[in-house]
Amino acid sequence: MPDRSESDSRKLLRRLRDTLAEPGEGQERLDRIVRLIAESMGTEVCSVYLFRDPATLELCATRGLRSEAVHRTRLRLGEGLVGRVARTRRPVNTGDAPGERGFRYMPETGEEIYSSFLGVPIQRLGECRGVLVVQSKSAREFSDDAVYGVEVVAMVLAEMAELGAFAGESEALRRPHQNPVTFRGATGQEGAAEGRVWLHEPRVVVTNPVADDPQAEILRLREAVARLRVSVDDLLKAVDTGDKEQAEVLEAYRMFARSRGWLRRMEENIALGLSAEAAVEKEQSEARARLEHIPDAYLRDRLHDLDDLSNRLLRILTGQGRDTGAAMPDDPVLVARTIGPAELLDYGRKLRGVVLEEGSVGSHAAIITRALAIPLVIHANRITTEALNGDPILVDGDQGVVHLRPEESVAAAFRDKMAMQAEAQKRYASLRSLPAQARCGTVVSLHMNAGLMADLPSLEGSGADGVGLFRTELQFLIRSQVPKRGELAALYARVMDAARGRRVVFRTLDIGSDKVLPYMKRPDEPNPAMGWRAIRVGLDKPGVLRMQLQALIRAAAGRPLAVMFPFVAVPAEFEAARAALLREIDREADLGHVLPARLEIGAMLETPSLAFAPRGFFEMADFVSIGGNDLKQFFFAADRENERVRRRYDTLDTGFLGFVAHVVDRCAQTGTPLSFCGEDAGRPVEAVALAAMGLRMLSMRPASVGPVKHLIRRVDLSAVRAAIETAQAAGEASARSAVNRVLAGLSPG
Ligand code: PEP
Ligand code: MG
Predict the structure, then answer these.
(1) Taking Cα atoms as reference points, which of 566, 569, 556, 630 lies closest to residue 596?
(2) 196: three-class secondary structure by DSSP
(3) Which CATH number characterizes residue 581's domain?
(4) Which of 20, 222, 347, 710 has a C-alpha 20 to 30 A away from that of 649?
(5) 629 CA to centre of ligand 1 in angstroms
(6) Terminal CA-to-CA distance of the chain, rounded, Å?
């Protein structure tokens, strides 16, 4: 099998480009292309297989195999050598195809006489469109140069497919980005939205994969890489934290940008005839394909770095930045691989929904979408590769499902669901001024959780009695440096103004674990959720806590103030934090500032230990709030960020409800007000169960106040309590069925 020189390869690419430029149907083009490749490579066979649907490859053109097999021969993903190439997105090169593991004989093609087989993925940015195969009778593996050359050709085919050059009648020849695609991810934030795609990082479109003048392309590439390196250095200077671990990670990023191997490989791609852009994309595609097969989180992160750098480089080369000139639709659904909290907030209230490839329920993005009250779907694998700006999209945050370019029937069903939800919202709105009073007469006070100014407008609309949890760390998370005392005081004052006399419980800074400040030294901890976080940080490094307490006191200035310390595990921590607050009160008084009219100091119960604290703690605390998200995490030893384990344990577990009853009892003994402010408080069934266990105050996201109130008003809490106790006595693991049975008997209301 002849090895091919660089100039052969360039010639082939140029002829390919010319062929593609000629007018004609997709099928004619493909036929010409396979002929051209077979001739140029000196092989008896050249075939192109394309995906007909995500699980099936179809032979779409061939030179050398029987023409009757075209559009008839199909393989499942992973089936035969072609299916293996598509699944692994790596070449298969063998001198003895029939003897190769997994070989599948397809009599209609007449391929049994060809011993050697080389298949490479037709892929672009890690997205595989099909497989390019060359075959020969002589039993010999193809040389490395030949493999490389065929990969380069496949890359050009992928670019052309992206531009719709092979569009034709057959299903496998459809234009890309046209068909409906459903993504099954996970719920980041409930709700439903219909809109049009707005890509946070728009796709770079390469319209010139083949170049005539390699020298000029290499120069363009080198210039672009030089610019990239300067911009990366600038970027790293700006985020220099002095943190060793972070510095190492950033250094790895810089190293990639300076990697000679990366540049050399891209230059080799150019030497074979690719343009600078296509050369970058080829490397990027391969890195993405590798990414999917690497279990090691650190290495995956490094490959993500490389992906990120490739994107920057492509934007420099093509001049296609974020600002591509496209106008944001008026119903935008943001689609991104991942996004930082500040960037997400920049889009603000314009967004209808957000879809991410990564993320977690506790991520900052999730917190912000909650504040904006828009649905978020996370883990929508590969959506950034499939979606185009302006594509119609439906986001089902309840199910964690996204429909891209949906069929009309799907869209219609979805709209029905949204209409039903809107109907329900109207019903909830009519309850706004009514109390959450159960049939048995018990009144449960419903409050909302907040963390941004953007949350506050919801206070009126939701009918919440106040803010039961104001997460102050969000203000710290969305900035690039520690906010100043004056800024915080002004913000807290605005929050109190917006609450118009309703109680706001400010929780002091809860950082560490999943909430990492970009500008603060992050300790190297094996288990951050159980590490140096929340009040532990506040007590060990009191500077920021003091500053925050001063800001709160000044913001209150003559109004009542409620302060809550997070993650108190033992009474001594609460005593120390409380003493710190009282010291600041004295100091502020000495400075002549107006003091709060009334001061409440509370603790969050987020570790089981605090439920067993001596009575003195409950006497000292002005109130206690159960942080159910963390409490459940430690009760069940199940990481709240880990989707796999998080869902295994039920809040209506009889043991957990028993534990909640114990906390209710401890607080009742000392008359200490108790609330519950984890996510479960906003889930109607869970909320009813908690109220039945004795909780009289629940704090939740604003959108949940209506549904929770609606259910509480229809239910007799003593009947729910009796059902839970019967389940407990019967040794049932969960009280969910028992509670559901009570709820099933309710009138619709
Ligand atoms: C909790 O843990 O339940 C809680 C309300 O705090 P956060 O979710 O901010 O940790
Ligand atoms: Mg917590």
Answers:
(1) 556
(2) strand
(3) 3.20.20.60
(4) 710
(5) 5
(6) 79
355 shares a domain with 305: no
Tell me what the mean pLDDT of segment 24-46 comes to.
93
Quick one: which H or E segment has residue 58?
Answer: strand 56-63
Contact 334, 355 (CB under 8 A): yes
Q: How confident is the model at residue 304 (pLDDT cuts 50, 70, 90)?
A: confident
The per-residue pLDDT for 1 is 45
The yes-or-no verdict on residue 242 having pLDDT over 70 is: no
Percentage of the chain lying above the pLDDT 90 cut: 62
Q: Are residues 288 and 396 in the same domain?
A: no
**Greater model confidence, 139 or 569:** 569
Decide if 179 is inside a domain.
no
Residue nearest to atom 8 of ligand 1 (CA): 629
Q: How do residues 371-424 score in pLDDT, each as one tens digit?
A: 788 999 999 988 998 899 999 999 999 899 999 999 999 999 999 988 988 888
SS3 content of the chain, % helix, strand, coil (to 5): 50, 15, 35
User: What does DSSP say about strands 332-336 and 353-356: parallel, antiparallel, or unpaired?
Assistant: parallel
* Residue 525 half-sphere exposure toward CB, CA atoms < 13 A: 14
CA of 678 to the centre of ligand 1 (A): 6
For residues 503 and 534, membership in a common domain is answered with yes
Identify the domain containing residue 729 by its residue range. 430-744
Per-residue confidence (pLDDT) for residue 372, from 0 to 100: 81
Between these two residues, 518 and 500, which has the higher pLDDT value? Answer: 500
Show which of 363, 390, 421 is a domain's final residue.
421
Report the residue among 506, 604, 629 best suited for mutation to probe ligand 1: largest number of ligand atoms under 8 A from its CB.
629
Say if CB 326 and CB 389 are below 8 A apart. Answer: yes
Record the pTM: 0.73
The answer to whether residue 677 is catalytic is: yes
Nearest ligand 1 atom to the CA of 629 is 3
Q: How far is the CA of 636 from the centre of ligand 1 (A)?
A: 16
CA of 298 to the centre of ligand 2 (A): 27
CA distance 386 to 403: 12
Q: How far apart are alpha carbons 208 and 9 in whole angstroms?
A: 16
Q: Supply the pLDDT for residue 362.
A: 66
pLDDT surpasses 90 at 275: yes
Atom of ligand 1 nearest to the CA of 362: 8
Q: What is the DSSP letter of 653?
A: B
- At CB < 8 A and 24+ separation, what contacts does 518-522 make? 518/239, 518/241, 518/477, 518/480, 519/239, 519/241, 519/479, 519/480, 519/481, 519/482, 520/241, 520/482, 521/241, 521/242, 521/243, 522/243, 522/245, 522/246
- CATH number for position 302: 1.10.274.10
- What atom in ligand 1 is closest to the CA of residue 633? 2
- Ligand that lies nearest to the alpha carbon of residue 641, given by its number in the listed order: 1
Other beta carbons within 10 angstroms of residue 715's beta carbon come to 24
Name 335's bridge partners.
Answer: 199, 355
Q: How far from 150 is each of 12, 35, 166, 288, 591, CA to CA, in Å?
A: 10, 14, 19, 19, 77
Instruction: Report phi then psi at 61, rounded to 5.
Output: -160, 145
With a Cβ cut-off of 6 Å, ligand 1 is lined by 469, 471, 510, 606, 627-630, 677-678
Q: What is the CATH number of the domain that holds 391?
A: 3.50.30.10
